[in-house]
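Z., the sequence and structure:
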Amino acid sequence: MQQEALTIDKGGVEISSNLLAGVSLPAAVVHETPLTHNLAWMQRFAESHGAQLAPHGKTTMTPALFHRQLQAGAWGITLATAAQCRAAFSNGITRLLMANQLVGQANMAIIASLIEQGATFYCVVDSQENVRQLGRFFAERGLTLPVLIEVGVAGGRCGCRTQEQILSLAETITNEPALVLAGLEGYEGVVHGDNPEEGIRAYANYLVEVAVALEAAQRFAAPAPIVTASGSAWYDIIAEAFEGAPLQERFTPVLRPGCYVVHDHGLYREAQSAVLSRRPDLQQGLEPALEVFAQVQSLPEPGLAIIALGKRDIGHDQLPIALRRYREAGTPVQLLSVVGWEVTKIMDQHTFVRLPNDAQDVEVGDIVAFGASHPCLTFDKWRQLLLVDDALNVKERLATCF
């Protein structure tokens, strides 16, 4: 039975249901099998460490993936901006953790509206002035805003730099009737140095120490206050610190990795190798699920292929990697070699590939699957992505809301 044609890619053109025949390329692709594995793997990891999972939604801004994460057991979705929170809420996500300061009355108005519509919302604070602004705005709206104090590091990004600042800010929050101190937030990815692992362990332990100190001072207004951190590179170290006795049954530990959902072929593949070396008890690990399919556009001279793929289609903080090659209208099992292929340059709409001397079978129109580093910077280039099965049949359109 012939499958119904789908609509996909940046222009919303009509395509067929298999990537190798009739699909307008380039196209961003999510493979369902590794996606399903990653969802279950990270949820299982969090639960095994007594933590909740609030995946960072800014990675994908794809509501269909948010819902898959929630269905797998996630506690909520993390976002970075008020506009992202509005987009997630409009697509049915009701528990939102904004791992950022809420600044500006227009952004405060967005969040106030979401709370009035039933959203459970948390944001972070790190300054007396922001606390006063939020307290005044939400009091005037007759609303209560739960906030988390952000714990920063010297030379890092946002966040209080000292425990004295944190304790002072907690007192100020207590004096704002419209605010509720609901916990602590941090991000270990801003910790650097000659020995980053040691620094991140120290930072994670510091988060726990501060949380316990604030609890002893009775500064938390919410029961089981939140303690949250963790990007996609050091989540194992954060989880180990949160699993310790000081937090058990007294706090709500929340991990916030985002890139795990599709993983990658660059930065996070390297980070995952480091996780598995630190934790050999973890089995299999995450699998890359995101690729961009594109076609050979030109073979202008010996040893050079130009691919119809550019910076507007794929993340490029590291150069893309050629993973597999197919003949157009072929089958997924008929793989062609990309051994020795080297991406040397990427432009807006073109990628340069140096071919080995024995690559004599390359044809214009060949379809190449590419892997990229840092999935955030690929997702944000697409209005829709294709979810495909192992046979490269398109099963679903995944709309983004950047």
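Confidence is low (pLDDT under 50) at residues 1-15. The chain has two domains: 6-30+286-399, 94-257.

Let me know what you think.
H.
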